[in-house]
Design brief:
25% strand; binds magnesium ion; single chain; binds iron/sulfur cluster; 9 strands; binds S-adenosylmethionine; binds the ligand Nc1nc2[nH]cc(C(=O)O)c2c(=O)[nH]1; alpha/beta; TIM Barrel
Length: 209
């Protein structure tokens, strides 16, 4: 990377884009809604069950002009989902400002492990034990989505729910490879604790991205 590219990456004028695609939001509160996904490369949170490990090394993904990715996204759909990788590793101010100028509503999928940036209409916080969220995001998260890999994750979910604001929706989502074991436990938990809802990775059943 050249010095100029480094500077433009820090300012958010360039971003490492792993992929971008038009699909249906598969998870959480907006399940079923058409959205254009922008998946940024780079993550060091290290979830051993991560379903996009290819995203982790930012150097493997081409730097794109932020203005170009904003225009492509907005020309496909006005609902945008920023994901990764960990999108908050990057300065999201220019990208989100440009998407806003183009009339978009912007959602983010994040672990919250990095400082927030950008103009964000819907924040889905999916906290991880290996890289806990920064404190500020609990106050503004719209949706808490805890991944259930084993029984201890129910306790982690309850602890994280204590930290979010009162309006935040609460979701449990099974780790994909553990779904046959975990969904029965999760449905039981949700019926006993109805402030929680079940989230299913519906796009994996629909065979869409
Ligand atoms: C790939 S992550 C990218 C965004 C961000 N790094 C995060 O973890 O929120 C997108 C969503 O997929 C979830 N996820 C990742 N791997 C999963 C798996 N194997 N099973 C279920 N959900 C998974 C994450 O918890 C997160 O909610
Ligand atoms: N359809 C679809 N919905 C999703 N919701 C969150 C996703 C993500 O990887 O962040 C995702 C994804 O990869 N595909
Ligand atoms: S924080 Fe998100 S992208 Fe990073 S390893 Fe965990 S699930 Fe994967
Ligand atoms: Mg995914």
């Amino acid at each position: 990377m050249t010095d100029l590219e480094k500077i433009r990456l820090e300012s958010g004028e360039l971003l490492p884009v792993m992929e971008h695609f038009y699909t249906i939001q598969g998870e959480g509160a907006y399940t079923g809604k058409a959205a254009y996904f922008i998946r940024l490369g780079g993550c060091d949170v290290g979830c051993h069950w991560c379903d996009v490990k290819e995203s982790w090394d930012p150097a493997k993904h081409p730097l794109m002009e932020t203005s170009q990715i904003a225009e492509i996204a907005a020309s496909n759909c006005k609902t945008i989902v920023l994901t990764g990788g960990e999108p908050l590793m990057w300065n999201l101010n220019p990208l989100t400002q440009q998407l806003k100028n183009l009339g978009c509503t912007i959602h983010i999928e994040t672990s919250g492990a990095y400082e927030m940036s950008g103009i964000l209409d819907w924040i889905t916080l999916s906290p991880k034990k290996t890289g806990l969220p920064k404190n500020d995001i609990y106050e503004v998260a719209h949706e808490l989505k805890v991944i259930i890999f084993n029984n201890n994750d129910f306790i982690f979910a309850a602890e994280q729910a204590e930290k979010v604001n009162d309006n935040c929706k609460l979701y449990l989502q099974s780790e994909w490879s553990k779904r046959d074991e975990m969904y029965p436990k999760m449905t039981d938990f949700v019926m006993k604790n109805p402030k929680w809802q079940v989230s299913v990775q519906t796009h994996k059943y629909l065979n869409i991205p």
